[in-house]
C-alpha cells in the first residue's frame, strides 16, 4: 500500500488510501477537498476513498456490478454507524480523463470524489429527473471544479470539450446499494 492518511477536522473525518503512484498530486490536498465535499453534500459519517489501479477497480466492478471492465468510480454506501461509505477510484482512468479534459489528475480525482459522495448521499442520476445533476453542478461551482461526469456523459451544455471515444465509454458512476447482506450495483455500462 502506497499511503494511508486520515484527517479529522471537528467531527468530519476522511480517509484517503492510495495504492498507486499519483504523480503531482498531494494526498493532503485531496483529503482537505474530501472534507469540504463531504460537508457540502451533508453526508454524515466517515468516508474512505481508495485510489487504485484499473486491475483492482475491474475486480470490484466485476464483483459488485457483474461488469468485467474497469470504471472510473464506484460508491459503496454503508449502514454502519459513523460511516457514510467508501469510494473506489481508478487512478489510471482519472489520469486519462483529466488529461483529455485539460485539467489534470488532481482536479479529476476531486470531480470523482464529489460524484462518489453524491451517490453515497443517495443521489442517482440514472433514476432521478435531474436532481443529482443540478446539485452536482451547484457544488462544483461552490468547490471551484470544472464540468462533471453527468454533463460529460450526457453532452450537456456546460460540458466544455469532449473526451476521446475510448475514455467517454468508461465514464461510469456506479451506485452500489446494499440489500440485506449482499451488495448489488446499478450504473451505466
Describe this structure in words.
The protein is α/β, with parallel strands linked by helices. The chain has a single domain, classed as Collagenase (Catalytic Domain) (3-Layer(aba) Sandwich), CATH 3.40.390.30. The protein is built from 7 helices and 7 strands. The protein has helices at 27-41, 54-65, 91-101, 104-120, 131-142, 149-154, 165-168; strands at residues 3-9, 12-18, 46-52, 73-77, 83-90, 173-179, 182-186. The chain has a 7-stranded mixed beta sheet with strand order 1-2-3-5-4-6-7, with helices on both faces. α1 runs parallel beside α4, α3 (91-101) crosses α4 and α4 crosses α5. The protein is globular.
List keywords for this structure.
disordered C terminus; 7 strands; Collagenase (Catalytic Domain); 24% strand; 7 helices; alpha/beta; 189 residues; 7-stranded mixed sheet
